[in-house]
Amino acid sequence: MKSSFFIDRMTLRLQLGLAIGMLTAVLVVLSALIVGSLSTRSIERSLGHDLESRALAMQEALDRGMFERYRDVVNMASLQTALEGGLGSPDALRTIVNRMQQTYPLYAWIGVISAKGDILAATKDILVGHNIVKRDWFVSALDGPFVGDVHDAIMLAKLLDDGTGEPLRFVDVAAPLYGEDGNVIGVLGAHLSWKWTVEQRDAILSKDDHEAQRSMMILDQNGRILMGGPFGQDMSHLGSYRAAKTGETGHRRETILGVDSLVAYRPTMGHGDYAGLGWIVLSVQPAEIALKQVDDLRYVIAGVGLMLAILAAFLGWAVAHRLSSPLEKLRDTAAALGMDPNESNLPRLFGSREMVDLSHALRGLVRRLRQAEGTVEQFEISVEQRVEEKTSELRESNRSLAELAERDPLTGLLNRRGLENRGARLFAASKIENRTVSALLLDIDRFKNVNDTYGHAAGDTVIQTVAWICLAESRSHDLVCRLGGEEIVIITRGDEAGALILAERLRMRVAETPIAAYGGNIAITVSLGCAVMRESDRDLMSVINRADEALYTAKRRGRNQSIAYSERLEQRASVG
After folding, report:
1. How far apart are CA 126 and CA 99, in angstroms?
2. Among 83-92, 235-244, 348-357, 481-490, which is the least confidently predicted range?
3. CA diameter of the chain
4. Per-residue confidence at 356, pLDDT binned at 50, 70, 90?
5. Angle at CA 271, nearest 5°, toward 270 and 272?
6. Which residue from 213, 456, 479, 499 has the fewest beta carbons nearer than 10 Å?
């Protein structure tokens, strides 16, 4: 109220001047924000690409380097010319291991282990005579070449102390040794020093990168830090980690170890017959440093904008003075109209086209007000009728919109939202009435091949045809929903036997229905999983999840079949 009173005491020219000045200031601020935002995005994109190139270089260095280390050990294990008749004498083995150490200095420790786990020869005779039969890398290497993830040194921590005070970390690389009869007679094991990756990182990051505080971080497949931060710290919450886990590459902005940063991410892919360990490479730079030029640009725009706002306020006051003069005349005329009993209407005003139009409008208004007194009641009734009509139309429109929101636009089936809304009511009613409800989950076999061969338009036709078959074979009270992609779920009342009959009917009808497409007919099949609601189920999604497990089993057993979820499947799932 006080602010309104204050504004009412201000003249129109002052209000217009302030309004124009404030509007200019707001526009300048908005322009600064927009320019800053666009600049930030542009610079972030450019810097992100730079970081991506470094992440790519590190990823390739890791993949190729680990492949070479992997092949080193495999090749060393295959060089058995000195091991004729078995593993040979300890002196011969010691000579071979020392030569290997000289040839491959990246390995902190190399050893020959018998099939029973006894270390027969090793670098500098370290751990010779010890038994490592329970070590994971030894057990795995008996079956074939093995590469393990980074870990702290256990037995070798003190024996291989390099004097730096930093903990030793290794990557285990091992391969089986074969006798002349082709049987495994031992294992060649090597511990690759993790400092090797630091050398790879230092070779990629330049002096300019260090000055710009660009750094590298390596995460293992579970999101724990291997390099570039506290070893073993869980970083699986990062969006960049989760994106890279799906095979995606790119960059984004997020908080790394408490610092707002630009992050480029890239998963390692392995190389050759080395499958990789699922490492994630992050190339990181603090956003404050990367975007400093954007902040400077914002300050410049804000300063220029302030000066423009002051200039606009002055010009606005001058323009407002010219605009307000005719309005002041109108005010005086209106005051005279109320005081002069001989004046029955406002006089005509001149000065501008708008003022003439306003004068005509006000004079007409006075005349219409006199005529309107007798028609007010009829007008109010008409308004009430129109409001009621509009309200009815809005209710009908809302019902139509709600129906559209629950339907899949391609097939006309219920979508996930429709299934959630109607399925919840069906589930609750079934619980109350103690009725059995079953779920069928249908998936089109090898649907990707259809899209790749015939195109996505043909794929849409296939989905529509399967959807129409599901509608035709289902009962009117069944819920038929497209969950997404080529998956369709049918919620039907009845036990497992009835659901399986419906599933088989759907499967056979789809198999017997060729679908016309450009280039010929498409023959498709579907796999189905079936599950029945249990007393312990808390919602319909629990039933669908079990049907999904049964569907997975049907896919694994060769597709084009229907399988019901059973206790046996559940036991297998729990064991797996």
Report:
1. 15
2. 348-357
3. 135
4. low
5. 135
6. 456
Question: Which superfamily does 407-575 belong to?
Answer: Reverse transcriptase/Diguanylate cyclase domain (3.30.70.270)
Please report where in the chains the tokens 């890279």 appear, as a residue. 244
pLDDT at 462: 95
Separation between Cα atoms, residue 137 and residue 131, nearest integer Å: 13
Q: What would the mean pLDDT of 518-543 be, rounded to a whole number? A: 90
CA distance 42 to 38: 6
Tell me the two tokens of residue 531: 């599950």
Residue 371's pLDDT is 43
Architecture of domain 79-197: 2-Layer Sandwich (3.30)
% of the chain exceeding 70 in pLDDT:
72
Q: Number of helices (H) and strands (E), helices first, in the chain? A: 17, 17
How far from chain centre, in Å, is Cα 34? 26
pLDDT at 482 exceeding the cut of 90: yes
Q: Supply the angle between the helices 195-204 and 12-78 in degrees, to the nearest 10.
A: 130
Residue 448, Cβ density class (10 Å: 0-12 exposed, 13-18 middle, ≥19 buried)? exposed
Contact 71, 214 (CB under 8 A): no
pLDDT of residue 272 exceeding 50, the answer is yes
Residue 196 main-chain phi, psi, to 5 deg: -55, -40
The confidence score (pLDDT) of residue 373 equals 43
Q: Which residues pair with 480 in a beta bridge?
A: 490
Q: What does each C-alpha distance from 32 to 35, 201, 295, 310 come to in angstroms?
A: 5, 39, 11, 17
Q: Among the residues of 192-350, which ranges form H helices?
A: 195-204, 207-211, 239-245, 287-290, 292-339
Q: Which of 564, 428, 435, 551 minimizes the C-alpha distance to 493?
A: 435
Give dist(CA 438, CA 426) in Å, integer: 11
- Where is mean pLDDT largest: 95-109, 119-133, 163-177, 479-493? 479-493
Helix or strand run (H / E) with residue 482: strand 479-484
**What six digits make up the tokens of 313?**
């306020």
- pLDDT per residue over 196-210, tens digit each? 788 888 888 888 888
Mean pLDDT of 275-295: 83
Q: What is the four-CA torsion angle of 47, 51, 52, 53, rounded to 10 degrees?
A: 110
What is the model's pTM?
Answer: 0.48
Distance CA(61)–CA(55), nearest Å, equals 10
pLDDT at position 376 is: 44
Strand arrangement of the beta sheet that strand 107-114 belongs to? 119-122, 107-114, 184-193, 169-178, 146-152
Q: List the beta strands (DSSP E) in 201-276.
A: 215-219, 225-227, 250-256, 259-267
